[in-house]
Amino acid sequence: MSELHKLEGKRPFSLTQLPTEGKLYHYDRDVAEEEFKALRKELREWQTRLYAEGKQKLLVVLQAMDAGGKDGTIRSVFQGVNPQGVRVHSFKVPSKEELDHDFLWRIHKVVPGKGMMGVFNRSHYEDVLVVRVHDIVPEAVWRPRYEQINQFEKLLHDTGTRILKFYLHISKKEQKARFQARLDDPSKHWKFSLEDVEKRKYWDDYMAAYEEMLEKTTTPWAPWYVIPSDQKWYRNLAISRVIMATIKEMNPLYPSAEGDFGDVVIE
Ligand code: AMP
Ligand code: MG
What we know:
Helix 1 (29-53) packs parallel to helix 11 and helix 2 (70-77) packs across helix 11. The chain is of the alpha/beta class. The radius of gyration is 20 Å and the shape is globular. The protein is built from 11 helices and 5 strands; from the N terminus they run αβαβααβαααβαααβα.
């Protein structure tokens, strides 16, 4: 189940052939929500173990078009985990200082340490997406980044980090509906920017950039999952399934007591 949306092998494909409709994969929203809540409860327990063990690291990367559901995923899937053991990082337009360094500098600084779970809301992948589509740097600069990213992620993997990458796949129609909802509700205006409307004009270019990115950077050590995300309830379930299956495989263990506490008396 958890491997349903995993990309296999490095072959070219078209995103238009991969469904954005989660309901194609699940017959009932209520049933899906029940399973999701049970998984979320499990995630809280297993995240505590990961933290208590203090050895392994888990990195979750979220990429999507604007209004694709990155923030909602973080809010829903990670609700209730111990904030001490989970760090969320949102990557914005790079600062002057960040631009003065290589594109992975700001990323490497905040990858999870031992026992930690890191969640990236956008990531180093922006450097082959927005940067490519809007010609922020020439192709001779962004093209080698696929390989640089693969090597970087290999390094993280080889030093104890499990990496899961999710592309939240929504349709152009669904993006329109979500933008409209943001416009119609003043309490959602803060999520809306005119820049988003501008970027929507480049939808096809973004899809092409995503396709090549997914093809070139899905590796055995850092696979991509293309999650049908038009229905939030399915998206949450599909992502939770992958994260839970992965943590269980990592199997973090509570450390045994240092010494024998059998005779300890608390006065
Ligand atoms: P938001 O996620 O809505 O807060 O928006 C963050 C903005 O930062 C988006 O428009 C991203 O495309 C942009 N951004 C993130 N990383 C980069 C990058 N490396 N280069 C250029 N723009 C970026
Ligand atoms: Mg935005």
